Amino acid sequence: MISYIEGKLLKKEEERITILANQIGYEILLPAIVMDTLKTKTEGEEISLYIYYHQTERQPKPVLIGFNLEIEKEFFQYFISVEAIGPLKAVKALNIPVREIASAIESKDAAKLKQLKGIGTRTAQKIIASLKGKMDKFALTTRDGPEEIEIMEDISKQMLNVLVSQLGHKTNDAKRMIAEAAKRNRTISTFEELFEEVYRGTKSP
Which residue range is the domain that position 185 belongs to? Predict the structure, then answer.
C-alpha cells in the first residue's frame, strides 16, 4: 500500500496531478485545499505528498488521494467515516482549511459546513453528530506547516494539563477553553500566549 510519495511533478490538471517517482507515474487526486498550495509549482519540480490509498470491491481501481501534511490525511480519514461521505465526495468537499472545518464541527456550526462543496444541511448535521468531540486536535491547528502543528499540539497538551491538574477544570471544559482561545487568536505560538488568551476568555462577560 502506498502511503507517501516523493517525485517530480509530471502533469497538473484541475483536480489531480501526476507525480513521476522511480520512473513510474502516479495519478493522484487532490482536495482543493491541497491543490491551492501547488499553484506556483511547475512541471519538473520536486514535490512530496502523504497518500490515502483507496480500493474496495465496488471500487477495484486504486485511487490515490494526496495531502501536504499527515494531519490532513488523518482528518480526511475521520471525515470519510461519516455516513454518506466517501473518499471521492470528501475530496471535492474539502475546499476550506481543515482547522476551520474542525472548529465548525466542535461548535456545531452547520452553516459553515454547508460551505463545503456538495454538503447540504442533512449531511452537515450528520458530520456534527459523528465527529463532534473528536476534532480538538485539528481545530487547534493554527499554522499550515508540520513543525508548527507539532509545536501547537505540545503547547495545547501542556495547557490542558495545567487547567485540569492545577486549576481544577473538567477535561471537556478545558478542551473547550483551549479551542476557543486558539480560534480567537490564530497567531498563538507559545504556551504563555495560549495561557494569556485562555485567561482572557475566562474574564469575558
Answer: 144-202
